[in-house]
Amino acid sequence: MLILAVLTVHTAYSRTRYRMIPCQGELNPICPAIMYYNSESPGGDSSYLHAIKAAIEKEPKEPLFYYALGVIYFNNRQFAESAAAFEEAGEKGYKRDADYYLHLGTACLQSKQYNKGIHHLNHCLNLRPNDTVALQTIAQAYYQQQDYKQAIIYWEQLLRIQPKNAFAMFMLGKSYMEHGDKKKGEEWCEQATADL
Q1: Distance CA 7, CA 122 (A)
Q2: CB 44 within 8 A of CB 8
Q3: Do the beta carbons of residue 191 and residue 169 sit within 8 Å?
Q4: Other beta carbons within 10 Å of 181
Q5: What is the model's pTM?
Q6: CB 153 within 8 A of CB 123
Q7: CA 55, 56, 57, 60 torsion: positive or negative?
Q8: Mean pLDDT by 10 residues, the chain (196 residues)
Q9: Whether 37 contacts 44, CB under 8 Å
């Protein structure tokens, strides 16, 4: 009998919670059942990890199991392992949609694979151009890498979608200042804090 894997999915990246395992219709009845819930305690018990690894041993071609493994690793802050599991899921046939690239890109950035992470997040934006999480994540990554010119491009793109986003305004201001335009940077920072 195959093992039932119960996954608790919660991510606090950028203070945004989103479900990382999509709702599936009916899974093949010989596959383990995978359920997920929002939880106030992200991460999870190591038994989930053992359960999904055992499921992979029994069904090594099932892409959803590798994706679930990526989620478990992500929630346990094992970001390099998470990215590798998400990539394996894609190679096994997991649907490479905008969410897939968002989660893979985020895991890559968290594991300091900046170029790879930005590349995957741009795939997300190609599929879903107004994804504010991807835009903010890329902008922040460029800012942290001190590529302020690129950070400015993504902060501005985010602000076209969310013109009242005070965090994006403030970070755009900081990016301008770091890029050498102190006056414009101060204006954006003042605008960000005007309503506080």
Answers
A1: 28
A2: yes
A3: yes
A4: 16
A5: 0.77
A6: no
A7: positive
A8: 27 36 40 35 62 88 92 91 96 96 96 95 97 96 96 97 95 96 94 83
A9: no
